[in-house]
Design goal:
The chain is an alpha/beta fold and 498 residues long. The chain contains 13 helices and 11 strands. It comes from Streptomyces lasiicapitis.
Length: 498
């Protein structure tokens, strides 16, 4: 049903066909969006015009161009009917409904109309230019403010959903931000921590880990150069004697760890056989090599004839080889020369690889270091590098006869003992450099002629060895103290006087 003459406003149920909303504005009703912001700013402008009229002033004239294009109508100072030729609507002047959009006239509520104090100004005012100027000043997201209108807009509103006058919509308050879950108070149900929002962990929820002091780093290498040079004679499986001799020289500590900083230490070969723990000796030398390098020094070793014998026994066993005395095998020769079954049982691939990579000859501080007191090194090259390369290549070919030939040559001894010994030493020094040769292999008691065979346990026949033996006109130093004869395992610092 529609509103008839003399009837009050009828409240209707909103439907899809209700495009328009009567121009009634209820207090407390608040429109949102850009349309509401525009009309509220327009209401402010009309309030200012009404206040100016009430004080006897004249309303500012609308620009002439707008007045020429539309018929102006005077705005009544107080509530009443709108005169013919009133403000211009969207389809034409108010009071003349256009065919496409029927006009809707709203009676101004007397309770909201201001009371004039002076006569109404005759100046005509056009509504459309005023509206356009208001729209130009409205920001896209201006804050919405609730306000009691003084003068209702005389133009058509945009279609909005009608509100029931009995239950006006309460002003929408800005929604407060949800409290941070990490702040005071309890977190909401279903809360899941995120990267930026982590829960607080109490001390009792964590695992307490004991922080231990880091060990002191090893001493830095001497910037002025390497440390002193030491050499070790034949060990032959006597691990306890080796540890005692190294500790006596301050090269290892009480726990058997490297303690010599940037000292240089050379082993002259023959780590296994005859003694009880040849594999233990190899493990110790390998470990000291790593520890000495970390401390700025080094621990290195030469290949002896017993290393060749142990590798051959492991690789070839009872395979026959050509020997100068007939057919032989590495297994038989290894057992004959003091091979220990416990060493063979504990021998692993990394032990074999380490032994096969050892050099046969080296030079340090004018000392030519070799294992055997023989000139057989000259058969394998005219330089230190050539000799070592030739022997390494021969070992990689895995030929039992070639292995046996190497073992047989490095088993020779006493080349420097006789009257021609000094000349033999000079031959090696001329070829490979150095001023003295240092060797193992031949026990000092043998070189001195004190015994003809290894010690048989008789205390009366025990050799007395005090230190290295210097001979061959002072050109050769023997380092095998005869530990297998109840002699002494020698560890000495070079150079030696004499």
């Amino acid at each position: 049903m529609t509103q008839g003459a003399g009837q009050g406003p009828e409240v209707r149920t909103a439907t899809l066909r209700d495009f328009r909303v009567p121009a009634y504005v209820y207090e407390g009703v608040r429109e949102t969006g850009r349309g509401a912001a525009q009309e509220q700013d327009a209401g402010q402008e009309r309030e200012q015009d009404a206040a100016a009229q009430a004080q006897g002033g004249q309303v500012a004239q609308v620009p002439a161009q707008a007045a020429q294009t539309a018929q102006a109508a005077q705005v009544p100072a107080q509530g009443g009917s709108v005169e013919q030729g009133g403000p211009v609507g969207r389809g034409g002047p108010v009071g003349q409904d256009s065919p496409a959009e029927p006009s809707a006239r709203a009676a101004q509520s007397p309770s909201h109309a201001p009371t004039p104090t002076q006569s109404q100004s005759p100046a005509p005012v056009s509504v459309r230019p005023l509206r356009d100027s208001v729209q130009a000043r409205v920001e896209p997201q201006a804050p919405v403010r609730q306000q009691t209108p003084v003068q209702q807009p005389l133009e058509q509103h945009r279609p909005v959903q009608p509100q029931s006058p009995a239950q006006p919509q309460a002003p929408v308050q800005p929604q407060a931000a949800a409290p941070h879950p990490g702040s005071a108070g309890e977190a909401s149900d279903g809360y899941t921590p995120t990267e930026r929002d982590l829960p607080v962990i109490n001390r009792g929820d964590t695992v307490q880990v004991e922080v231990r002091e880091m060990p002191e780093p090893p001493p830095a290498p001497d910037p002025g150069g390497m440390g002193p040079l030491y050499v070790v004679g034949d060990v032959h499986g006597y691990l306890d004697e080796l540890v005692a001799a190294l500790a006596a020289e301050g090269l290892i500590d009480a726990e058997g760890n490297w303690a010599a900083g940037n000292t240089r230490l050379w082993f002259l070969g023959d780590f296994t056989d005859r003694g009880p723990d040849g594999i233990g000796v190899i493990d110790l030398v390998m470990r000291l090599s790593a520890e000495a390098a970390a401390a700025g020094g080094y621990c290195k070793a030469l290949m002896g004839n017993h290393e060749l014998l142990l590798i051959g026994a492991k690789k070839f066993g009872d395979t026959p080889v050509n020997s100068g005395a007939g057919t032989a095998t590495f297994q038989a020769a290894w057992l004959l020369n003091g091979g220990q079954k416990t060493d063979m049982e504990r021998l692993e691939d990394h032990h074999l690889q380490w032994m096969a990579r050892l050099d046969a000859i080296e030079e340090e501080d004018g000392h030519l270091l070799v294992h055997s007191d023989t000139t057989a090194y000259l058969d394998y090259g005219d330089s230190i590098e050539a000799v070592n390369d030739t022997i390494h290549e021969a070992l990689t070919r895995n030929d039992p006869d070639e292995y046996w030939d190497l073992f047989r040559k490095f088993t020779k001894r006493f080349a420097f003992r006789d009257d021609s010994g000094a000349a033999a030493v000079r031959e090696l020094l001329d070829a490979y450099g150095g001023s003295r040769i240092v060797h193992g292999h031949s026990p000092i008691p043998y070189l001195l002629g004190e015994v003809g065979s290894e010690y048989d346990g008789d205390d009366d026949g025990r050799p007395v060895i005090e230190g290295p033996h210097i001979y061959a006109e002072g050109l050769a130093i023997a380092m095998d103290g005869g530990v297998t004869m109840a002699g002494k395992l020698l560890v000495c610092q070079l150079p030696l006087d004499g």
